[in-house]
Amino acid sequence: MVRGGVAILDFGSQYNQLIARRIREMGVYCELIPGNVPLSEVVRIEPAAIILSGGPSSVYDKDSPHPDPATFQLELPILGICYGMQLLALHENGKVEGGYEREYGPAKLYCEEDCNLFNGIESGLQAWMSHGDRVVEVPGGYSTIAHTESLPIAAMADVARRRYGVQFHPEVNHTEFGEKLLRNFVFGISGISPDWSMKTFRKESIKTVRKELAGGGNVILGLSGGVDSSVVAALLHEAVPQRFTPIFVDNGLLRMGEREEVIETFRGHFGMPLKVIDGSDEFLSALSGVEDPEKKR
Questions:
Q1: Are residues 107 and 209 in the same domain?
Q2: Is the pLDDT reported for residue 1 higher than 60?
Q3: Tell me: the pLDDT tens digits for 53-85?
């Protein structure tokens, strides 16, 4: 965890990982966290700004995810994207309506007034839409800052409180000015410095591991050879090399040469005390006669 980054509240959009990627490419730390977590989970990462992501739900659906209402009491910049804009409007006492034909695809966005969110962005550029509900009345203190031919309120802002909502998706390449808009929010509005990198993340992660394991004891890790467990193995090996043992289990279902490749990589190249267990007989015996792929898993 790196303090002073961006907390992205995840409401289920297919584009959410793209939001995180765009922010990290700017040299800014961010975390994707479930959108309906308690406020304590949001402030845990000590963010300098919050993004409310898009999502497939209607804000009025019975089981639709909503942020902790206390989130809106934080004095932090907030950017709501698509469903996130609708959540922002609803919780700030604006009006959201459904029943419209779903809009999916490109639309020309026209700015209605000067706003720092659109600094350096021309009016009439293409934005990417993907929504059913829409904001039909902005909350008190907000103004409409952009529209399209079919959407009267395509973006809104309460500049004094640094709260913004966009009905389009700035994170996708189809929005011609998306990167510029996100940079305006992260740097110009939120005042975040681009001082994060994977090198910084590595150092912070190792520091966290050592702190968590300060009480002593050894660590074992089930190593599959995939990206997730490999990254964890590398961090543990650097943080507590004398107390860490990765374990790789050959289940008899590996690709040809995969076991040898894992051994060469982690034992040979990285010098880890890798333990290899041949569990192929046990696994294959348990799978004997099982034809349903779901049961095999």
A1: no
A2: no
A3: 998 888 888 889 999 999 999 999 999 999 999
Strand order across the beta sheet in which 163-166 lies: 30-34, 6-10, 49-52, 78-81, 163-166, 155-158, 143-147, 103-111, 125-131
Annotated active-site residue in 131, 169, 176, 237: 169
**Residues 274, 208 share a domain:** yes
Q: Which residues span the domain enclosing 231?
A: 198-296
Establish if 1 belongs to a structural domain.
Answer: no
Domain count, the chain: 2
pTM of the model: 0.78
- With H, G, I as helix, E, B as strand and everything else as coil, classify residue 280: helix
Q: Are strands 95-97 and 134-137 parallel, antiparallel or unpaired?
A: antiparallel
Residues 95 and 239 in one domain: no
pLDDT tens, 220-260? 999 999 999 999 999 999 999 999 999 999 999 899 999 99
Exactly one of 82, 115, 147, 237 is catalytic; name it: 82
For 206, phi and psi rounded to 5 degrees?
-65, -40
Catalytic residue among 31, 111, 115, 171: 171
CA distances from 170 to 22, 140, 197, 223 (A): 10, 25, 22, 37
CA angle 256, 257, 260 (to 5 degrees): 150
Work out the number of other CB atoms within 10 angstroms of the CB of residue 283.
14
**Whether residue 176 sits in one domain with residue 35:** yes
| Assigned token pair, 129 | 């839409």
The Cα–Cα gap between 285 and 229 comes to 26
147 catalytic, yes or no?
Answer: no
